[in-house]
Amino acid sequence: MENLTPKLASANLATAPTTSIFERHDYLTEPTGYCEHCLNILHPNKDRYYSCEQCPSSFDICMKCINLMKTEHAPQHSFKKDNYSMNEAMMIHYNTSCDGCKTVNFKGIRYQCDECRESYDLCESCYQKRNNLHPNHNFKIVQSPLLRLNNRILLARRAIQVFKQFPNLQYDPVTGYTLNDAQQVKEQEEEKIESVLGTTFTRSKKGSGS
Ligand SMILES: [Zn+2]
Ligand SMILES: [Zn+2]
Ligand SMILES: [Zn+2]
Ligand SMILES: [Zn+2]
Question: pLDDT at position 68, please?
Answer without folding.
Answer: 96
